[in-house]
Amino acid sequence: MTEIKTLADRIEDLLPQTQCTKCGYAACRPYAEAVACGEANYNQCPPGGEEGVARLAALLGKPVIPLNSANGVERPRPVAVIDEQVCIGCTLCMQACPVDAIVGAPKHMHTVVAELCTGCDLCVPPCPVDCISMPPVTGEATGWDAWSQPLADAARERHNRREARLAREREAAEARVAARRSSAAATAATNAPAGNVSTPAASPASIAGNADAEAKKRAIIQAALERARKKKEELAAKGQAPLNTEQVSADVQLQIDAAEARRRRLGLTGTGAEQLADKPADEPAGNPPPSTPASTRNPR
């Protein structure tokens, strides 16, 4: 049977599939659909560059126009590199990568599979210790000259597989939550006639053990943040800064907010390790303040 492609399908076929969100949409497919229905212009894809605009203009029967600078600039393709000495294994970069090009495990060093990286920059903003750099790897070649159709097709396939996996994981998580609630309700109904049972107070030894564990955790994070602070100072002295801080999807922004909330729970309300150093080791972390809504933060 001959496949009948919609206009959005044909537009998507011409996009580089970096899934970088620089166009202002969550991925290449939503952008293609927005262009097809006239909600977005066809010059909003920096990775495609001037050639990408020309491809879309030819398909749509419209004139070639300059790339919209508000979405970014055409540039050599970068590849993410993780500093192993600074990485704390928080997994936020793995969660942000749209093509599953980062591998690792919680509390262990992560690494980037360079052959799979699309250079989207999305792993940079969520990193709480700024251990990811984006060096260019294509010399003077930019846009489609730094990319290829086979690479684009492979990136789209990995992105689609990732989206399907995340959907399965969400469904499984929802099913587990529903099962736990059902079990808790059944248990409460069974134990209701027995009356309330008082909970024994925690022993002093247990309280001391928890305080020691919390102090050790804060000390480990303090060391990591101190390394990150020194690296930030070195990068600032060189005039370097994180990339793609103006175009971050809502999902990635939620991950950044969650990381900041975790740091607040540990007493790290600022970005420097010196605040932690001033906090007594045996002082319990207080309740975190409400997370700042993504809409009032840097729009990225």
UniProtKB/TrEMBL annotation:
Region of interest (Disordered), ranges: 184-211, 265-300
Keyword entries, A-Z: 4Fe-4S, Cell inner membrane, Cell membrane, Electron transport, Iron, Iron-sulfur, Membrane, Metal-binding, Repeat, Translocase, Transport
Family matches, as Gene3D superfamilies: 3.30.70.20, Electron transport complex subunit B, putative Fe-S cluster (1.10.15.40)
PROSITE patterns for this protein: 4FE4S (PS51656), 4FE4S_FER_1 (PS00198), 4FE4S_FER_2 (PS51379)
UniProt cross-references to Pfam families, sorted A to Z: Fer4_21, FeS
Signal peptide residues on this chain, from the entry's feature table: none
Source superkingdom: Bacteria
Positions of the 4Fe-4S domain: 3-62
Occurrences of domain 4Fe-4S ferredoxin-type (ranges): 78-107, 108-137
Biased composition (Low complexity): 184-194
Name of this protein: Electron transport complex subunit RsxB
